[in-house]
């Protein structure tokens, strides 16, 4: 599993790496698999962005973080010339450090703008081919539909090696549809019965359930996030905003269930998205990392089995910001 981070944050502050970019670098140095989406200006930006973003991208790549560039596709309605020009510009300006492209506003069904004549499939297949021609066959291509795509035509047209970010929603909406995540942790011996089958009990991964030698033993939490659509299992992205007060146990619980549900890329943040709010801080949930970033990075790193020793030796100390007292106890293991 990888972290798919919308890093819509300027990379430098006072000529030094911005804190959020430094946190991505630290995670990469610790062995966490991170895919950071760079977004200079809803696309490759301007000439003035080149220097700062080149410096930021190089720092991340040197630490093992994948960097992919943001390109808007207008749900298939944006000019193909403009979309391909953005892809070309990313290659020209940042090709040395770029791993691929994040195609935002991706079409959800093949006939969104083509009345079923197959033009939509051909359009996105053309974007996919352009990216691979410029950046190599191993380039990362992420299609951000933001909704649970059920149309196989698009996924079949682009092939089996494309990541589909098919869920971008608020935690409150998810809980309304799939059940609230419990904040009271129950013993691992709790059984799943007919009345609780929609709120299955999951064992925490090693390192996320507290001290295994403690009297109460490992702990679990309840709640079931949705599974990835069958035709994108193992290559599906999951982004949630408005996930406040996430304890370490909750984060680990979600990460476990998401991997079990076929999700390959995940991101959660306590930033709120409310475009109608009078508070401008609520207009963009991707302009900061979550207060529990370190806990999220550690959980994903642990489940992937790739976190190096320096992660636990203080390179990325688990945060206590926004965490419950139970999370502090769990992290102390």
UniProtKB/TrEMBL annotation:
Biased composition (Low complexity): 321-333
One Pfam family hit: Spherulin4
Region (Disordered): 307-333
InterPro entries the UniProt entry points to: Spherulin4 (IPR021986)
Name assigned to this protein: Spherulation-specific family 4
Organism: Ectocarpus siliculosus
């Amino acid at each position: 599993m990888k972290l798919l981070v919308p890093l819509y944050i300027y990379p430098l502050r006072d000529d030094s790496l911005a804190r959020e970019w430094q946190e991505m670098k630290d995670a990469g140095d610790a062995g966490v698999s991170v895919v950071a989406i760079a977004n200079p200006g809803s696309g490759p930006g301007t000439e003035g962005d080149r220097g700062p973003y080149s410096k930021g991208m190089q720092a991340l790549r040197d630490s093992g973080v994948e960097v992919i560039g943001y390109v808007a596709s207008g749900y298939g309605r944006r000019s193909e010339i403009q979309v391909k020009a953005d892809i070309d510009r990313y290659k020209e300006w940042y090709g040395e450090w770029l791993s691929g492209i994040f195609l935002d506003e991706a079409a959800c069904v093949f006939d969104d703008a083509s009345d079923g004549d197959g033009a939509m499939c051909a359009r996105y297949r053309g974007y996919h081919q352009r990216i691979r021609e410029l950046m190599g066959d191993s380039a990362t291509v992420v299609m951000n539909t933001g909704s649970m795509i059920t149309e196989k035509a698009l996924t079949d047209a682009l092939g089996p090696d494309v990541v589909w970010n098919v869920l971008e929603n608020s935690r409150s909406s998810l809980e309304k549809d799939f059940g609230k995540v419990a904040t009271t942790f129950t013993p691992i011996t709790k059984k799943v019965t007919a009345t609780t089958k929609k709120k299955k009990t999951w064992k925490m991964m090693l390192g996320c359930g507290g001290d295994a030698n403690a009297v109460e033993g490992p702990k679990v939490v309840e709640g079931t996030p949705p599974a990835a659509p069958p035709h994108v299992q193992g290559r599906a992205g999951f982004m949630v905003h408005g996930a406040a007060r996430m304890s370490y146990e909750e984060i680990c619980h979600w990460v476990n269930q998401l991997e079990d549900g076929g999700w390959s890329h995940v991101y959660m943040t306590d930033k709120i998205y409310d475009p109608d709010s009078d508070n401008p801080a609520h207009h963009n949930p991707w302009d900061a990392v979550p207060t529990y970033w370190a806990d999220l990075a550690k959980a994903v790193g642990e489940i992937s089995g790739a976190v190096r020793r320096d992660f636990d030796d203080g390179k990325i100390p688990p945060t206590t910001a926004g965490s419950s007292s139970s999370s502090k106890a769990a992290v102390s293991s």
